[in-house]
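Bug report

Summary: structure tokens for PqqA binding protein differ between web form and batch submission.
Environment: batch mode, default settings.
Steps: 1) Submit the sequence below via batch. 2) Compare with the web form result.

Sequence submitted:
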Amino acid sequence: MSDTLNSKPGIALGYRLQWEEVQQCHVLLYPEGMVQLNDTAAAILAFCDGKRSVLGVIAALENEYEAEDLREDVVAFLHEAVDRGWVRYG
């Protein structure tokens, strides 16, 4: 677990996070299509720059949204995002 917390997540190659005006939501674009994201997923992915550790992403989210105890939810989301190929660890 500590290895994961110190890993630096970034958007996977071939994917791009952006606001899609027509859809009125953030999306992940990739060559074969697009994934519509809910606000929570978009907020987490916005901090996945490949420079911050998972702990840094959690701290940034807690600071930005004045929230606490986001660790379990963020780690679970990132695990799923890696499984789907959206995120890679550097």
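Above is the batch result. After comparison, the two runs are identical; trailing whitespace caused the diff. Residues 2-84 form a domain with the Outer Surface Protein A; domain 3 fold (CATH 3.90.930). The chain has one domain: 2-84.
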